[in-house]
Amino acid sequence: MRVAVNAAGISKTFGNFTLNSITFECHRGEVFGILGPNGAGKTTTLRIIAGLVRPDSGKISVFGRDPERMRDYIGYLPEERGLYRKWKVSDVLYYFAELKGGANTEYWIERFGMEKHENKKIEELSKGLQQKVQLIIAVQHNPDLLILDEPFSGLDAVNINLVMEIVKEMREKRRCIILSTHILNLAERLCDRVLLINNGREVLSGRVDELSDEEVQEIEYRKNGRIIKEITDRDLKDLLNSGYDIISYRKRKLTLEEIFLREVSR
């Protein structure tokens, strides 16, 4: 599998915060998640990959070259709004398309259902519609590397599903997608591999389906007429001996969210 992004011991200090020697690889044809709590260093890492920030130490390459030289091949969605608020939607989209040497803007306007908003100014749009404009900017030139920082911010369920669909399509086309999101159940559904960072340091990395061998007992039972659902390490026999009516019982692996909460609380 061809390496798209290679980060070797990248570090960056801003004030009292240090991103400390982060190492990972991302490949063509995969979705790679960079996850962590607020202030963990996710956005700094994404900006380094995009060539917007240079690391203080370590090496970063995109398709074997300096990210700054590969910007035409990178699509980047920042977490913060980066749009010209007084411009019309169509003017913004075509301007960014021209910066990238051309793009299939009309297709993406239709794909995101933005036809009736083309002549509106950015400042007239809702947060969700502004997010859709930024997403179009990121994908419209068909980048080889797509970097998405909180792509689901402000979107409703229909548009979240649309973004997930587009990400999967790009993976099938052998693009490399790197994303960060706080919605961990979506990350679990989308990502092939993840890197979990906390306080600027790597905590855990690997394939989503191989991150933990730990199992939990999931028990649903009736107590005083009420149905209680819980995940517990209590022995099933203890519940039965307590006289509770067991409705269902199963063992399962930890979810990505449970792994996340366990690791960042250590």
Query: What's the name of the CATH homologous superfamily of the largest domain?
Result: P-loop containing nucleotide triphosphate hydrolases
Percentage beta strand:
25-35%
Rg result: 22 Å
Order of helices and strands: EEEHEEHHHEHEHEEEEHEH
Into which percent range does the helicity of residues fall?
25-40%
Per the principal axes of the C-alpha atoms, what is the gross shape? Answer: globular
Q: Give the helix tally.
A: 8
- CATH topology description of the largest domain: Rossmann fold
Contiguous runs where pLDDT drops below 50 for at least 5 residues: none
Counting helices, strands and paired strands, the structural category is: alpha/beta
Q: Please provide the count of β strands.
A: 12
CATH class of the largest domain: Alpha Beta
Overview of this structure, please?
- The protein has 266 residues and is α/β, with parallel strands linked by helices.
- The protein has two domains: 3-210, 3-Layer(aba) Sandwich (Rossmann fold); 215-264, no CATH class.
- 29% of the residues lie in helices and 33% in strands.
- It has eight helices and twelve strands.
- It has helices at residues 42-49, 89-99, 105-111, 127-139, 157-172, 184-190, 236-241, 256-264; strands at residues 3-14, 17-27, 30-35, 57-62, 74-77, 145-149, 176-180, 193-198, 201-207, 215-223, 226-232, 245-253.
- The chain has a six-stranded mixed β-sheet with strand order 5-6-7-3-8-9, with helices on both faces. A three-stranded antiparallel β-sheet has the order 2-1-4, covered by helices on one side.
- Strand 8 and strand 9 form a beta hairpin.
